[in-house]
Amino acid sequence: YLVGVGRADCTGPVAQVPLMGYANPEQEGGGLLSRLYSRAFIVAEPGGSRRLVFVSADIGMVSQRVRLEVLEKLRAKYGELYRQDNVILSGTHTHSGPGGYFQYTLFWITSKGLVRPALNSIVNGIVKSIDIAHENMKRGRLFINRGTVENSQINRSPFSYLENPASERKRYSSNTDKEMLVLKMVDEDGHELGLISWFAVHPVSMNNSNHLVNSDNVGYASYLFEQEKNKGMLPGEGSFVAAFASSNLGDVSPNTRGPFCANTGESCDNPQSTCPIGGAAMCMAKGPGNDMFESTRIIGQNIYLKAKELYEKASQEVTGPLSSAHQWVKMSNVSVELNSTHTVKTCKPALGHSFAAGTIDGVGAFNFTQGSVEGDPFWDQIRDQLLGEPSNETKACHQPKPILFSTGEMNWPHPWHPDIVDVQIAAIGSLAILAVPGEFTTMAGRRLREAVKSEFVSHGTRGMNVVIAGLCNVYTHYITTFEEYQVQRYEAASTIYGPHTLSAYIQLYRGLAKAIALNATQELSPGPEPPLFNVTNMTLLPSLGAENAPASKAFGDVLEEVRQEYREGEVAEVTFVGANPRNSAENATEHNFLTVERFSHISSSWHVVLNDASWDTRFYWSKGPRGQSNVTVQWHIPAGVEPGRYRLRYFGHYKKRVSLFKTITVPFEGSSSAFQVTAP
């Protein structure tokens, strides 16, 4: 094959924009722990016209808006080379990236509307990563390997899983998918290019009290792999690209110690995930570490170490033709033939009461509980008054789900949920990537993979490796099995197209697999094109006004200085007169907020040893009164650091008023005093 890899920054604004994932409007960005990247991989047939693009981006999910804008930009640049059928965009599902990049109204509620700078950063970052991969295509080889990852996940809805037939459960050793699949890429001389790992786990080691933008456990795994392969480079630099992509993670949590009541410390591993005192709001899962930062590193390192082992031992070569199959489907109206006598239908989208309960990884508001199959007259009445009552047809279709939001019947100012959804499979020889538009639970994913595999076999294509790539192309929440749907925990309440959603997807993906196996992808009907709403900027974010430094201080001045000496394991910290980091995101696509620098006696000059993409640094922004704000830069000094003289620097932009109606953006910087890091 011809193979190209690329990586580009897609971080966007790290302040004031609500983070996407826990649906908690209070959880706004307030700084940066690690940068977010888009990682692109292109595989093409040498001399042939067929090619595929797989992108894994460090974002909560790919929205339809992001996908449509990316495809538009690719068409303008490359004509018909990169299209909806051969480009897969997947989100890692970190819950600590900026939101606001959606066109459907439901997602505006918790992310303060459509935030253009966040959307642009993601779209431009994805396109740039594809550009880099496109420019670096070379002859190469692909290898595949699979193995088991231990101690890194639990099923967070085990009571739902138990609803699946015992005969089916008996075939599996665990209630989560522990298998990781790794695709290794090298050029024809054996030089390493990159890898994609698919593994099912929620990147929610960082909980909903976090305000620092970061890529969570899977992002930390990417960081470790890339740092190891791009020796001597700063984070985010170097040619080797390692993507840790999402899979069927719907009911899979990395918080391996399980759910406990925050107030009493007792277990709340019960069907309602509720505590005797304080109810559901108190029931939270704990990761393996002492705090969320440590848990993120432990889970990320587990995933990285397994991927590294599988990568090094990968010997099964992937060969054979490339193909891709794609359709747009009106998902609210799919007829599914369950058998020769039974046909069922999907529903207009709607969310159930337990959607508002959240999960043990991030609890909801107002003490809604999981597993409610009855509505609540109080909330139902408020909903009827504010948003309108669900139609009888929708109520009946979604049974036994009590509907909280009948999003498919809510269209102001735009529809609240997508109606037209992408289904897509890309095949690279014996590897079939199922790009799914949401979060399949463990068992739902197993059924989908099995159905697609047997479809390939029935048309004479044996030995296919089938992998699910999650959170692709458009976000449609969760997909549970029919049995899991009956008990209406969070994942089921968020299965928006009703109880037969999974059956509909299985039917659709079988159709795509058949087209690939029979080499008939040209004959698939493309389906109805999704809408691109005319929303330019609809946001409740505070506007960026002129800023001030305190009296007798300038931007970048030190307010609280570092100590003169530190040892490994300690935290070097300095606080500056700061400015809103959004100024920087809107002015420079590749803005770096901080550096850790070491003094070299050989060249008698300062050298950058870390940037803000490092997991050892933290950048905090806090807004004060009268247009003032502070920035704190931290360096958590790791074991084995080289002793010597260091300093911490900060780079920002402030808004300066030049006339009544005009402000300009002015760059500035600040530096701590030098300090000594001594040997332990």
UniProtKB/TrEMBL annotation:
Domain annotation Neutral/alkaline non-lysosomal ceramidase C-terminal: ranges: 510-677
Ranges where the Neutral/alkaline non-lysosomal ceramidase N-terminal domain occurs: 1-507
Cofactor binding note of this UniProt entry: Binds 1 zinc ion per subunit.
Cofactor(s) listed in the protein's UniProt record: Zn(2+)
The UniProt record lists the keyword Flavoprotein: no
Any Gene Ontology CC annotation: cytoplasm
BP terms from Gene Ontology: ceramide catabolic process; long-chain fatty acid biosynthetic process; sphingosine biosynthetic process
Pfam families: Ceramidase_alk, Ceramidse_alk_C
Enzyme Commission (EC) number: 3.5.1.23
Molecular functions per Gene Ontology: metal ion binding; N-acylsphingosine amidohydrolase activity
Keyword line: Hydrolase, Lipid metabolism, Metal-binding, Sphingolipid metabolism, Zinc
Catalytic activity: an N-acylsphing-4-enine + H2O = sphing-4-enine + a fatty acid
Annotated catalytic residues: S253
Homology family: Belongs to the neutral ceramidase family.
Protein name per Swiss-Prot or TrEMBL: Neutral ceramidase
